[in-house]
Amino acid sequence: MGLTFFAVFIDGYDTAILALLVPHLAEEWGVKAAAFTYPLVLTSVGVVVGYLSCGALAQRLGQKRALVLGTALFGIATVMSAATLHLESMGILSVTRTITGIGLGIVAPIAIVIGTQNGPAEKKQSIAVFITTGLITGATIAGFTGGLLIEGLGTAGVLWLAGVVPLVLAVLLSCFIPNSPEHTGQENTSSESVAAAILGPKLRTSTLVLWTATFLVFVVSYTLKSWLPTLFEDFGMSRSTAGLGLAFFGLGGMGGGLILIAVSAKFGTTRSLVVMSLIGALATTAVAVLPANTAVLLFLICIAGAGITACSVGQTGIAVSIYEMSIRTKGVGWAAACGRIGSIVGPAIAGVLLGFAWPAQDIVLLLAVPILITTVCWLILSKRIARTDHETVEQAGVKADSNS
User: What is the pTM of this model?
Assistant: First the structure.
């Protein structure tokens, strides 16, 4: 489980380190930060492709081999970014980042499914949430160390490091991750039957509500991850302090993930997410509207990170709970793909708004709206999951009575 967590950790680190590099690269290349919208967005496009293809790839190669392949792919692509950075070509960077995204998209859902398969069945939601917290843990470590690494290694050096580490991890995964069970039901399930199950009468409403919530929360999360240093510079912070904003967002996210793991065991994941999303919406609004100094802003973005990140990692636990094993890899992957579509839309819109010189406070305030809508989605899912659990208990009781 530790290695699968670390595979997801590198995904979060990679996303955050690129956001931290943008202001530095913009200065080195003599362009505006908004010009990096293309590589930022295309990274997420690649991730969507990876998410959508991970189920078929796992079916063809096996989950372990697909995980190793995806890890090696994003490592190689990041090394390619580092090797070509001196060319100052936005086109080349966009291509290498797209390939990086494909590798990242293959890794995350498969890592989550492998982790839940190798743990106790009754703890599958908690395990899924724990592994998914690797995303924000990686982003947090990047936020706290990225500035020092950029200073010490330079922009290209940071990318070299970010590329070599996953290549080493791919070797470790190949050596130490156990082979998946030979027959999980996944191998015998066609894409058509998976789609029919996920969008069939039994699961259609839950699926569509989950996709909506995941899309919206990723709009907010990845807009902040991609543009927070730039936005905080517009708030009047120095560049080094603005970078700390990303670190505090991630720190709050780590805390939010741990709180979610603890609280969901008692109250259920969806009900816990209702509260966490409300906290995220209120804190985001406060960042935008309160006249605050740097310390207060960092505190508020930390609280916002806790609420928003709890939602972005919690949706994985809900997906694992909704979908049975035979459709779980694709169910988790498709839900995550909806999220990553949000991670394309959000940063892209923010980049356009920055290009039109929108005030940073207005952009942050706008982000509170999708978080509030997400709260409604969690309420709907909470009721549906409770009803499903009740029906399952009743059916088990009827079956027990008929057998006695």
Answer: 0.72
